[in-house]
Specification:
The chain has helices at 5-8, 22-26, 29-44, 46-49, 53-64, 68-81. By secondary structure, it is mostly helical.
Length: 82
Protein backbone atom coordinates (compact mmCIF):
# COMPACT_ATOMS: atom_id res chain seq x y z
CA UNK A 1 0.00 0.00 0.00
CA UNK A 2 1.44 3.37 -0.98
CA UNK A 3 0.66 6.67 0.63
CA UNK A 4 0.70 9.99 -1.12
CA UNK A 5 3.11 12.60 0.14
CA UNK A 6 0.27 15.03 0.83
CA UNK A 7 -1.34 12.60 3.28
CA UNK A 8 1.45 12.72 5.83
CA UNK A 9 3.24 15.98 5.06
CA UNK A 10 2.39 18.95 7.25
CA UNK A 11 3.83 22.35 6.55
CA UNK A 12 5.77 24.20 9.21
CA UNK A 13 7.30 27.61 9.56
CA UNK A 14 11.04 27.49 9.64
CA UNK A 15 12.50 28.85 12.85
CA UNK A 16 14.55 32.04 12.43
CA UNK A 17 13.33 32.44 8.86
CA UNK A 18 13.23 36.22 9.38
CA UNK A 19 17.04 36.24 9.68
CA UNK A 20 17.37 35.50 5.98
CA UNK A 21 15.72 38.72 4.81
CA UNK A 22 17.60 41.60 3.26
CA UNK A 23 16.10 44.10 5.73
CA UNK A 24 17.17 42.02 8.74
CA UNK A 25 20.73 41.84 7.49
CA UNK A 26 20.86 45.65 7.33
CA UNK A 27 20.07 46.01 11.05
CA UNK A 28 22.68 46.76 13.68
CA UNK A 29 23.30 44.11 16.38
CA UNK A 30 21.11 45.87 18.97
CA UNK A 31 18.16 46.02 16.58
CA UNK A 32 18.67 42.39 15.57
CA UNK A 33 18.40 41.30 19.20
CA UNK A 34 15.22 43.35 19.59
CA UNK A 35 13.67 41.87 16.43
CA UNK A 36 14.68 38.36 17.51
CA UNK A 37 12.97 38.93 20.86
CA UNK A 38 9.78 40.08 19.15
CA UNK A 39 9.74 36.98 16.94
CA UNK A 40 10.42 34.80 20.00
CA UNK A 41 7.40 36.30 21.74
CA UNK A 42 5.32 35.83 18.61
CA UNK A 43 6.29 32.14 18.48
CA UNK A 44 5.41 31.61 22.13
CA UNK A 45 1.86 33.00 21.83
CA UNK A 46 0.90 33.26 18.14
CA UNK A 47 -2.84 33.58 18.79
CA UNK A 48 -2.41 36.53 21.15
CA UNK A 49 0.41 38.27 19.30
CA UNK A 50 -1.61 40.46 16.93
CA UNK A 51 -3.68 41.82 19.79
CA UNK A 52 -0.59 42.85 21.74
CA UNK A 53 1.77 43.81 18.90
CA UNK A 54 2.09 47.51 19.80
CA UNK A 55 2.53 46.71 23.50
CA UNK A 56 5.24 44.18 22.62
CA UNK A 57 7.01 46.71 20.41
CA UNK A 58 6.93 49.20 23.28
CA UNK A 59 8.31 46.70 25.81
CA UNK A 60 11.08 45.47 23.52
CA UNK A 61 11.98 49.04 22.60
CA UNK A 62 12.54 49.90 26.25
CA UNK A 63 14.35 46.64 27.01
CA UNK A 64 16.89 47.02 24.20
CA UNK A 65 16.91 50.84 24.19
CA UNK A 66 16.01 51.15 20.54
CA UNK A 67 13.45 53.62 19.12
CA UNK A 68 9.93 52.29 18.61
CA UNK A 69 9.87 54.04 15.23
CA UNK A 70 12.84 51.99 14.04
CA UNK A 71 11.19 48.72 15.10
CA UNK A 72 7.93 49.67 13.43
CA UNK A 73 9.88 50.80 10.36
CA UNK A 74 11.56 47.41 10.15
CA UNK A 75 8.23 45.55 10.21
CA UNK A 76 6.72 47.93 7.66
CA UNK A 77 9.67 47.37 5.30
CA UNK A 78 9.37 43.61 5.76
CA UNK A 79 5.66 43.71 4.94
CA UNK A 80 6.34 45.76 1.79
CA UNK A 81 9.06 43.33 0.70
CA UNK A 82 6.61 40.39 0.62
Amino acid sequence: MTKQFNNFYSSFMEKDEHKKSKEYKKLNPKMRKAVDDIFKKMDSKPSDFLNTFEKTINQVSKKYKVPEKQLMGYFEKEMLAI
